[in-house]
Amino acid sequence: MTASFGQVLALGDDALVAAQRLGQWCSRAHEMEEDVALTNIALDQLGAARLLLTYAGELEGAGRDEDALAYLRDDRDFRNLLLVELPNGDFAMTIAKLLFLAAYQRDRYHQLAGGADERLAGIGAKSVKESTYHLEHAALWTLRLGDGTEQSHRRMQSAVDEIWPYTHELFDDNDLRPGWLATVEPVLAEATLTRPADGWAPRGGRSGRHTEHLSYLLAELQVLHRAHAGASW
């Protein structure tokens, strides 16, 4: 069974916006090794976005390619999760976002890899390997910060508390939450972090209702393409 345009578009938008956010760390991380790591993770996300948006354009059948879908839509036309558009914040905030996103993407891509849509299965099989590394990287830093100094623990706990409400939207269209919790909760426990209680659960990304942060991110992402429409390199 072939996947729908909306399903593939949403996954592509998640990866594209995550790539843009992580790319903002380039030359700004606290050490060179981490600068390279975050940039490479951003490139992995961008690679997945290209594959997914290309396929989404083909499914739509309206003549839009990956560039048109990435650069020529307004924020209301994007279907990404709210979590990925949130500002980077400090390093702890970025790690919390990456931990939660990578745990979700790994399981989602694994699910797609075993699905009936051969094209999407191929994308999933490739991307699950990358998201597994992203998860391992984020988990390592969560442990180092959470079980580190008093200040690093405080910042990591604050980041987890702030991002947690946005994780509920990850599971509105799937049944992956139990497995996700089974991955995330042990990491938080080992890092001596408290798993936040479930409560407020903001939503809207999948239906095009976003935070103000996405508009600013898209302005940065799209400015060159829109300023030189139709140009080739």
Task: Tell me about this structure.
The chain is an all-alpha fold. The chain has one domain (5-195, 205-227): Ferritin, CATH 1.20.1260.10. 66% of the residues lie in helices and 0% in strands. It is built from 9 helices and no strands. Helix 6 (118-146) runs antiparallel to helix 7 (150-163). The longest helix has 29 residues, at 32-60. It is globular, with a radius of gyration of 17 Å. The mean pLDDT is 96.
Question: TL;DR of this structure?
Answer:
The protein is built from nine helices and no strands. The chain has 233 residues and is mainly alpha-helical.
List keywords for this structure.
mainly alpha, Ferritin, 233 residues, 66% helix, 9 helices, globular
| Oligomerization status of the protein chains | single chain
* Proportion of residues in extended strands: under 5%
CATH class: Mainly Alpha
What's the average pLDDT? 96
Number of helices: 9
Q: What is the domain tally?
A: 1
CATH topology: Ferritin
What's the structural blueprint in terms of helices and strands?
Elements: H1 5-23, H2 32-60, H3 66-71, H4 82-85, H5 91-113, H6 118-146, H7 150-163, H8 177-190, H9 212-227
Helix pairs in contact: 1-2, 2-6, 5-6, 5-7, 5-8, 6-7
